[in-house]
């Protein structure tokens, strides 16, 4: 029995690897239709007036690069394409702004955009909710210099930007529920429009905020990034990664069905299935 | 003075300092200074690690100090960024180089401003030498031995025209840099002394007094933040009119800055804690000590190269060795390892899907059906399955992405909202308990 469990696990891992790797090697084209929450975020970016800045809050770490990184890329691409000035800002994870900076630098060359004029990196600021309250009231008191130590008042991109009232849209890109703090103190006090780009597992909770209008648009994990690419008419990395993800999802559905069929067969024979016991006892295995 | 100490006898000083670091490392890692019989390897390893660490840290510090106090003129009271001239313009102006440095800011009354330069000018050359990369201006000024009173010829691009400017280096620029760095050092030392004194004072307080201090600080912070939030921005009260806004709001900025400092300290405490735990693991050769060694290697490497590339102007160039090593560490190790660790989850989710998700009740059956639809609705493969249904037809709501969207936006949303309300009420109760010092258990009852 132990031997069977050992091999079952390995076969499943092998199937998962195959479901992820084979679609990367074989060119497969599948349809993609942007969802309503992604369209709303796209329209919110388009609607940012020229006298206001967009804030791209990179509250993520390398672990979620596959989702949050590609969301960041899609949003920065849109900002560059539609000539919206923007600031990269981090307040949850210290490496976030540097990761965002790397993405922006790569795209800036392509769109001939200049640092300090078209975009800026405010860097990471610790302090969570207390810091955010002060920041929303007086941005330059909290973010006195950019990530490289240049006083932000000297950068043309900061013209007319003093409080959260001067922000046309703030998009929180994160695997956490940090949007709650922004809803309370940025939207709640200043009525600054908020966008939300969480990882796939966090997206379900955001629909209540979307329905109430506290969040104007939503990108749901990798699929959100792929939808945004579709809206930008630029199917890139996110769309390409959706194909292996499609097959991995399909495999998981098949595995759930197979596991339950075996479970029902075992129950009919009046015995407790080993897979069930094993699953409960060694869920993390 | 500091230059004098570091520069002439750098290697001797560094070696002595590294030995001191080594002894400190033995104390921290081994827990005591005297050797332990039978475990010499522990001390040899500790000394070696500490000497290497000490060397690297001190080299970084000495480089920074040399940079800080180098006796040369600053780059003319301007900040610049890289700029690439378009091919067409370069051709029209017969430029041999397309790279330049665009002025993003200049100090009022600085050398560049007095010489007639303006922000957005692109500096193409200094005294006949081309400038195109970060740190080029500083490097050229240093190489040419430019000091106060020197006259420099600057070739620049203004709009779409070439121009020439002659700039005399002013004393104000030189003094401003020295003054800034000296003030920075004084401020750092003063704040360190102040913090040490404050901590010493707090440490001398009896346990009960410490607790009362924390309780009082929590209460005051709670009063401030809740009052500021609920008081209206505009009011008819007479004393309010002078401000035309909630007067407490003006304190949000300073409080926010204080919050940053406190949060910064917590990060520092976390690092110290990790160093102590892993140091002890190595010192006592506990199980998994090679992992602790990897922790120290990663910590030191990121620390040294991170600080180095931040403070070394030349390191802003993408091909500079320090920059290359830092990028390799950040992108090649940190980013790649982080993503790899997270991606392993996919394999565990697959096995869990097979073994853990059992339909024992009707509710579980509904949940599984909803999960399948939502999963299919989010992937191109699912969209392809119902792709045959025309998106404008009467049956369009039956497309899998539309059913998935409906489940998320209606059924899921109602459930999420109910949970959010519950969480909010719980958070409110918890906040009140902490604010009023009613919370008991865990660390609330511990002696501090």
Automatic annotation (TrEMBL), chain A:
The chain crosses the membrane at residues 247-265. The keyword Transmembrane helix applies. Keywords: Membrane, Transmembrane, Transmembrane helix. It comes from the Bacteria. This is Uncharacterized protein. It comes from candidate division KD3-62 bacterium DG_56.
